[in-house]
Design a protein that fits this description.
Strand content: under 5%
Order of helices and strands: HHHHH
Radius of gyration: 20 Å
Number of domains: 1
Oligomer: single chain
Number of helices: 5
Number of strands: 0
Helix content: over 70%
Largest sheet: none
Structural class: mainly alpha
C-alpha cells in the first residue's frame, strides 16, 4: 500500500512541477534582475560616473518599478550602465 501511494506521488510530481513552471511571468524574471542590478549599483562607489547618471534618472526608474513595469526598468538601467 505504501509503495502504491509513493508511486502515485512520484508519477504526479513532474505534472505538478511543469504546471507550476508554466505560470512564471516574464515580468517576475525582470523583477529579480532589477533587484540584482540595483544591489550591484548600491555597492558601487557613489562618485562613479555611472552611479551618478543612474541617480539622476532614479525618479523615472522608481516610477516604472511602482507601476510594476520591471522589464522597462531593467532596460533603462542597462542602457544607463552601457553609457
Amino acid at each position: 500500500m505504501k509503495i502504491k501511494i509513493l508511486t502515485i506521488i512520484l508519477l504526479s510530481f513532474p505534472t505538478i512541477v511543469s504546471a507550476h513552471i508554466n505560470h512564471i511571468d516574464p515580468n517576475d524574471i525582470c523583477y529579480l534582475k532589477v533587484k540584482e542590478i540595483m544591489t550591484y549599483i548600491y555597492k558601487l562607489d557613489p562618485s562613479n560616473e555611472k552611479v551618478q547618471t543612474i541617480s539622476e534618472k532614479m525618479d523615472d526608474i522608481d516610477r516604472l518599478i511602482d507601476e510594476k513595469k520591471y522589464c522597462d526598468a531593467e532596460d533603462m538601467i542597462k542602457s544607463l550602465l552601457r553609457q
